Amino acid sequence: MIKKYLANLKILQRIMNNIYHEKQSRELCALHALNNLFQAKGTFTKTQLDEICKQLSPEEWINPHRSILGIGNYDVNVVMRALQKKSCEAIWFDKRKDPSCIDTTQIIGFILNVPTDYKVGFIVLPLKRRHWIAVRQIGGSYYNLDSKFDNPQLIGNEDSLLTYLRTQLQSENDKQLFIVVKNEVEQNQFWLKKQSDGNNYEQKNYNEC
Predict the structure, then answer these.
(1) Separation of alpha carbons 100 and 94, rounded Å
(2) Residues 29, 32, 65, 88: which is the catalytic one?
(3) CATH number for 51
(4) Residue 205 belongs to some domain of the structure
(5) Is residue 204 part of a domain?
(6) Is position 29 annotated as part of the catalytic site?
(7) Is 208 exposed, middle or buried (0-12, 13-18, 19+ CB in 10 A)?
(8) What confidence category does residue 61 fall into, taking pLDDT thresholds of 50, 70 and 90?
(9) CA 26 to centroid of chain Cα atoms
(10) Position 198 in a domain
(11) Among 15-29, 151-165, 174-188, 195-209, which is the least confidently predicted range?
């Protein structure tokens, strides 16, 4: 029993060592989330995301899609346009549905958008920012690739993932979930589980959030 545990621990450690995980720099959590999602350094760069900002609002002197200081804090429009450049789409998930309706075999991963405090040193200012977090399957298990963490955090199997997503979406904070899929999956709604009659799965009992 102990030998099996140690063997599994070694396998997990080997997987963890091979996971690409960018850590937080300035307000570049959206950039980190995208690169962590695709598991490759340089999938996107700050220069590319800044260029997307300009494309979205070419006539604006102060660009509304990023920090006024130009150090990040990209909004959802930038994230969605970046994903489209990789032939992907970000599908907003309705909190009234249960995550069990998602066919995880058809998706690339998830991106969570969560509120976070604005701090200057140890002082918390009465301002709110949004933080981007990537979640995806690697080596058969799901991981939270939050750039604020020192290391990826193991979520576990699909049941553990669904529990994690429910907890995030049912919390009091205004958290938003986006499902990242390939274009054809979004167009054909393959990310939704099918009922035996072939119709799209629909959650009968919606939970108030």
Answers:
(1) 12
(2) 29
(3) 3.90.70.40
(4) no
(5) no
(6) yes
(7) exposed
(8) confident
(9) 18
(10) no
(11) 195-209
